[in-house]
């Protein structure tokens, strides 16, 4: 009798452990399924940290855009209707994208290029000028998800040669039609000369773009002026 009790309680505990393991693996597969990618940097609703960056000629890239030591930010959920799509070479626009995400919890898609810009600022300027003169913009390596679930796009870029940076030109040349009829909130960082003709360029590349009021902040003022971001978001 004693043995029967010991064996049956062992069997019951095995059964319970099996159920718990099953539940845990279902939970983790649900988490994985919530995003359409494995390289999820954070879950929507979590605050993303801001980073110290450099400006002007000191604004080195780590040689692999902002992603040498971490995977590009990619937060995709099934329920979101807003997404922040951005490129950042030296981290300023990424910080602005993170400030926006930390306020509204929108999905995030950081763009990367197949051939990253050099770490050196001047070398990046030379390459960017050559690309623009030849109208040969860099190939985007990011897997672009189906954007049909989003009605609002926060589009983040930096100003290069007083217009859209080359990677953002590339993105819109290829994907501009997928943004038609969506509301676009353009946001950018610059070195003190404003947003140039970037809004006109967006209107040219996105058919029927519904452009909302834009936000452009000087790189070195960004971290000290977070209230500008909050004011812009409150207005919209
Ligand atoms: C190739 C290149 C061209 C740039 N051209 C301009 C410009 O025409 N006007 C300006 O205000 N800033 C210019 N900048 C400065 C960047 O717009 C600014 O530092 C921005 O914050 C960089 O953003 P990121 O750190 O997200 O890459 C240029 C920077 C680079 C690398």
TrEMBL record:
One of its GO terms (molecular function) is FMN binding. Residues 28-47 have a biased composition (Polar residues). Residues 26-69 are annotated as: Disordered. Gene3D superfamilies: 3.40.50.360. Residues 82-236 form the Flavodoxin-like domain. It comes from the Bacteria. Pfam families: Flavodoxin_4. InterPro entries: Flavodoxin/NO_synth, Flavodoxin_CS, Flavoprotein-like_sf. Transmembrane segments: none annotated. Residues 51-60 have a biased composition (Basic and acidic residues). PANTHER family: EXPORTED PROTEIN-RELATED, FLAVODOXIN-LIKE DOMAIN-CONTAINING PROTEIN. This is Flavodoxin-like domain-containing protein.
